[in-house]
Amino acid sequence: MTLNWRAHKLPDNMPRDGERDAVEPEEAPPAPLTRPSELPAGGKSAEDILASIFAPVPEASPLEQLEQTLRHPKKLIYIAMSNRNFYWRMHVSKLVLDEGYVPINPFMLFDYYLLHTVPKLLVREAINALLSRCDEVWIFGTMSLGVKVQLGIAKRLKKPLRFYDIADLPEQVYRISEKLAQEEGRD
């Protein structure tokens, strides 16, 4: 059995849509004024607290930003990953940024050997110079020969290392041990 709501008849004493009187919404009562002598025990009124919560936050000036950067520099993280995982370059950079660090991702800087417009050796030298200046090296996914060379350079320079399994990107990235990262077949 189905009900047809349109066919349902309203009682005769109920007004139809065109017959209803418009009802104005009630106005909110004015907020009570609080005199300084009537402030709560904490010393601030609700209006003062709300004003401080919703007050615009002044943006730091360029000079203040510079001072903050000089006083609290963020670590530079070199991202080592195989060109087989090239398409995850932005996700990996975002992960490093979300951790509060500055990502140095060769694939974001040099694309894929600057689209082969410069000699590979020149790009590799630039990449190695960046690696030497970074504070840490994070390895993502399968270690190709190039990543293994970068890992060797990082170890000789005594850089702190982290290894990540990216097989479940974009949903999840897992931090793993170096031994697990060096196993064949890791993505």
Plain-language structure description:
The chain is of the alpha/beta class and 187 residues long. It has a domain at 73-182: Rossmann fold, CATH 3.40.50. Helix content is 37%, strand content 12%. It is built from eight helices and five strands. The chain has helices at residues 46-54, 62-71, 89-98, 106-110, 113-116, 120-133, 145-156, 178-182; strands at residues 76-81, 102-104, 136-140, 161-165, 174-176. Strands 2-1-3-4-5 form a five-stranded mixed sheet, with helices on both faces. The longest helix has 14 residues, at 120-133. The chain is elongated, with a radius of gyration of 31 Å.
Summarize this entry quickly.
The protein is α/β, with parallel strands linked by helices. The chain is 37% helix and 12% strand.
Please render the helix and strand layout as text.
Blueprint (H helix, E strand, L loop, with lengths): L45 H9 L7 H10 L4 E6 L7 H10 L3 E3 L1 H5 L2 H4 L3 H14 L2 E5 L4 H12 L4 E5 L8 E3 L1 H5 L5
Parallel strand pairs: 1-2, 1-3, 3-4
Antiparallel strand pairs: 4-5
Which of globular, elongated, flat, extended, rod-shaped describes the shape? elongated
Looking at the chains present, what oligomeric state does this protein adopt?
Answer: single chain
> How much helix is in the residues?
25-40%
- What name is given to the CATH topology of one domain? Rossmann fold
Instruction: Supply the number of helical segments.
Output: 8
* Secondary-structure class: alpha/beta
Q: Which sheet architecture does the biggest sheet show? A: 5 strands, mixed
- Measured between the Cα atoms of the first and last residue, the distance is 58 Å
Instruction: Tell me the number of strands.
Output: 5
Rounded to the nearest angstrom, the radius of gyration is 31 Å
Q: In sequence order, what are the helices and strands, one letter per element?
A: HHEHEHHHEHEEH
CATH architecture of one domain: 3-Layer(aba) Sandwich
Q: If you average the pLDDT, what whole number results?
A: 81
The CATH class of one domain, by name, is Alpha Beta
**Strand portion:** 5-15%
Low-confidence stretches: 1-8
Strand order of the largest sheet: 2-1-3-4-5
